[in-house]
C-alpha cells in the first residue's frame, strides 16, 4: 500500500525515483537526480504486514518535472483507469491516453495503455465466471422469497422480457417478474438461453406454468414488449391469460419512428385514460397533427395498451 501511494505521488509530481532498497522489510527511495535531497524511508513492523514511515525529506532542490515516468507502468495505468475502462470496454487506447495525460499529466506508450486495458478486461471474465457459480444460490434465494410472498399474496400480473447479455459468455436472459401486495417488484423466474425466439419462450413459459401450478380458472395477465416470439409463445402456453403491451416500449418505438413529432406527453395521457370519450378526444388531437402517428397507434391495438379497454 505504501509503495502504491509513493508511486502515485511521484507520477503526480513528475519526477523519477531511484530505489535504494525495495523488499518485504524496508522501502527506501530517493530522487533519481542526486542534486535533489528528496527521500522516503519506510520499514515493516514486526507483524510482517504493516509499514511505518521512518523518515521523509520533503524538500525538492534543482528538480525538473517530466511527463514521462517509468513508474507509470501498465499495472498502475490499469489501476487509475479501471473505472473508465469498465464503464466503456470498447474505448480506444488513444482516448485512454488522452484521459491519462489530462488527469495525471503523464504520457505513456500506446502499448503500455493497451496492456493496461487487457489487464482490466480480464477481470471481467473472472467476475462473470464467479457470477455464474453463484446462480444456484441466487435461484434458491428466489425460491425462498417466493414462498414468503405466497403468504402475503400477489397481484395476478406478470411482466416477461428478455435481454442480451453483453459479458464474456453472451446469450439471452429471459425473466418473469410480478408485484406483491405492497407493490414491490420481485423476480419469479429467469433463465439463460442461446437465442430469443418462439421455441425458447414456449419452453420458459411452460416451466413457469408448472412452477406456479396456476389454476386456469383464476384470471391472470401478462405484460410484454410485443416481441413476436414472446407474443406467439403466450398464445400457446397461456391461451386464457390476458395480454397487455408495455407502453414505454410503444412510446420509445413511436419516438424512434417519428423523430420530428413531440407527442410523449399525449401518448402517456392517452394510454392512462380510463374513459373512452377522453381516449377518443386525445387520439383525435393526435390525428390532427399526424395521420401517420394516429394510424401507427391504432395498428398497435389499443385494447392491449389503453387503460379504458382493460377488462381486468
From TrEMBL:
This is MULE transposase domain-containing protein. Residues 158-253 form the MULE transposase domain. PROSITE patterns: TRANSPOSASE_MUTATOR. GO terms for molecular function: DNA binding; transposase activity. Keywords: DNA recombination, DNA-binding, Transposition. GO terms for biological process: DNA transposition. The keyword DNA-binding applies. InterPro entries: MULE_transposase_dom, Transposase_mutator. Pfam families: MULE (PF10551).
Amino acid at each position: 500500500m505504501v509503495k502504491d501511494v509513493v508511486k502515485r505521488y511521484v507520477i503526480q509530481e513528475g519526477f523519477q525515483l531511484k530505489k535504494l532498497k525495495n523488499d518485504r522489510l524496508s522501502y527506501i527511495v530517493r530522487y533519481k537526480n542526486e542534486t535533489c535531497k528528496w527521500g522516503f524511508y519506510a520499514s515493516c513492523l514486526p507483524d510482517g504486514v504493516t509499514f511505518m514511515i521512518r523518515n521523509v525529506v520533503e524538500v525538492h532542490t534543482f528538480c525538473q518535472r517530466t511527463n514521462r515516468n517509468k513508474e507509470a507502468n501498465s499495472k498502475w495505468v490499469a489501476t487509475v483507469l479501471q473505472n473508465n475502462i469498465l464503464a466503456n470496454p470498447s474505448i480506444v487506447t488513444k482516448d485512454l491516453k488522452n484521459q491519462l495525460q489530462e488527469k495525471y499529466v503523464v504520457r505513456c506508450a500506446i502499448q503500455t495503455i493497451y496492456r493496461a486495458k487487457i489487464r482490466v478486461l480480464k477481470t471481467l471474465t473472472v467476475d462473470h465466471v464467479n457470477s455464474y457459480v453463484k446462480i444456484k444460490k441466487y435461484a434458491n434465494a428466489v425460491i425462498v422469497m417466493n414462498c414468503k410472498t405466497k403468504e402475503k399474496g400477489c397481484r395476478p400480473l406478470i411482466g416477461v422480457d428478455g435481454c442480451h447479455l453483453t459479458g464474456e459468455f453472451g446469450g439471452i436472459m429471459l425473466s418473469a417478474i410480478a408485484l406483491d401486495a405492497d407493490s414491490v417488484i420481485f423476480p419469479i423466474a429467469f433463465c439463460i438461453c442461446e437465442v430469443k425466439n418462439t421455441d425458447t419462450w414456449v419452453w420458459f413459459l411452460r416451466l413457469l406454468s408448472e412452477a406456479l401450478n396456476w389454476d386456469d380458472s383464476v384470471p391472470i395477465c401478462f405484460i410484454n414488449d410485443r416481441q413476436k416470439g414472446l407474443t406467439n409463445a403466450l398464445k400457446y402456453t397461456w391461451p386464457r391469460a390476458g395480454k397487455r403491451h408495455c407502453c414505454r416500449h410503444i412510446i420509445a418505438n413511436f419516438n424512434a419512428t417519428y423523430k420530428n413529432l413531440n407527442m410523449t406527453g399525449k401518448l402517456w395521457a392517452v394510454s392512462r385514460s380510463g374513459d373512452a370519450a377522453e381516449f377518443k378526444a386525445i387520439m383525435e388531437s393526435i390525428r390532427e397533427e399526424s395521420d401517420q402517428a394516429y394510424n401507427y397507434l391504432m395498428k398497435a391495438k389499443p385494447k392491449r395498451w389503453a387503460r379504458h379497454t382493460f377488462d381486468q
